[in-house]
Structure formats: C-alpha cells, structure tokens
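One thing: can you check what follows?
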Amino acid sequence: MIYRQKNILNLLLVLLVTIIIFIYPETCQSGVKLGINISMYSLIPSILPFMLLSNYIIKSGISDSIGQLIHPLFGKIFGTTPNGSYGIFMGFLCGFPLGSKIICDLIRDKKISLQEGKYLFNFINNPSPSFIICYLLSFYYKNNMQKFIMVVLIYFPSILIGVLTSFKKVTLNPVSNSKKAKINYSFSATIEKSITDSFSTITKLSGYIIIFCILSSFISRIHIIPDCIKVLLYCTLEITSGVFHVFKSDIVPPFKLPLSLCASIIGGLCVVFQICGVTSNSGLSIWQYLKYKTISIVLFLMIYLAYSML
C-alpha cells in the first residue's frame, strides 16, 4: 500500500513538473543556461583538476606517501592515520563536495576505516580557498590581509570541531594491511580510471547545479515574494548565484558579508544533494554533515561578532 502511494506521488510530481516546463519554457531555459554557465566556468575549472589529481593519487598509492609526510603535524592535532591526514589536507584544499568524495574514496579503497571516515566527515566539508578568496571575498575586499583574516574565521570553527571531536578520544582502528586494497593498476589504467571516475562525478555535480538553478529561476518569477526573502532562498538553494544575489541586493551592507559567509559554510541544498550523491552507500550520514555544519555556523557567528567588535 505504501509502495503504491509512493508511486502515485512520484507520478503526480512528474506530471506537475512536465506541465510547469510546458507553461514556462523560457524560465526553465534561463535556469538551465545559468546552471551550465556555473558548471562550465566555475565548477569544472575549479574542481575537475583537483578531482583528477586526487583520483590518481589515491588509485596509484601516492596518497600513502603524502600522508606520511604531513602525518607528524596532522596526526598530533587530529589523531588521524597517515591516509586520514591526507584526507584532511585535500579536503580543506579542494572544498566541498570534493572533500566528501575523497573521504569516500579512501573508505572504499580500504585506505581508512569507516570510523575514521565518519570522524573526518565532521569537519572537512568546507568551501574551497579559491572559492572564498577569488569569488566570494572579491565582492567585499581588495586587501589581501582582510581576505586572509576572513578565511581564518571561516575555517577556524571546522578546525575547532576537528580538535574537540579528535580521534584521540576514541580507539583508533586503522585499516590493517590484510584488509587494504591490493589492486595495482598500470599507469595507463590508473589514468583511465581517474578520468572516468572524475567525469562521472563532475556530470552528477553539474546536474544538481542545473536543477537548483532552474528552481532559482522560478523563484525569481514569483513577484509576491519580497526581495529579501528571495535572496535567502537563493542562498539556501545554491551558493554561487546566492552570494552574487546577496551582494546585489538591498540588504543592509553590514549584514551582506556574514550572510554570504554563512551560506558558503553550509553550502546550500545543492551542495547537500551533491554530497549525498558522492557518498551514497559509503556509510556516511548527511544528517551528521548538517549537524556539524549547524554547529560551525553558530561558532562562526560568535567569532565574527567578536572580531567585528574589535
């Protein structure tokens, strides 16, 4: 009975979406074009190179060597294994959703345990430095020192969560050598698998961006919604266009930057769905992500308020 009701609801949803597309084709097309532009000129240039590199590093086994290099520092701070240290480094460098993808790959390739993966998932999902510095903060600051301070303020809550929920407080169970993946690919096979996996993931991520840009386009047509509420909805759906709308809005200037930063910390529904997509069947929970992102936003607002009062 429940299965039948679910099928009926899905059918009604498909019919409703089909009718809306036929009634408002121009709105749908503008959303698709915006989504493609964001994917082509923002997502792919900023994420694909790191995705190809990370896939190759993990599949070729180089992650073990990199992890050993940075483990003396990261291991002391976070209590992780060498491959876990590599996950932290790449997670902060690449940003979400690639950080989640890297952790998921490390779990599936038996580089880290599921327990360690869940711990890393608490705090490595953040906007990338390139997104914060080159895009978001470019609307508000020209001074590099001010940008650096804002980057520190954004990342500090996640680092604090990582330290407070440190792996040292639980039993560290690194994956034993007998359980680690023993598959050795040739150089060409490793390159091919890295390319295939990267383009499969980037296609999925681009699809989510297009869907949420279409939703944003329809929201822009609803004139009864106040502009300030529209801006909040844009930020809730997709951060790249949301940050732009915040900057162009009539919101009181002192509130624009913290609103943009809070939106970038949680990532919006688009990032949430992207993370769900790249971590499916991995044992990682999206509710865990939302829980710690809520804590990060509260900590960030407290730190930002204290900094603003200086």
Remarks:
- The radius of gyration is 21 Å.
- The chain has one domain: 29-166+187-308.
- Confidence is low (pLDDT under 50) at residues 177-182.
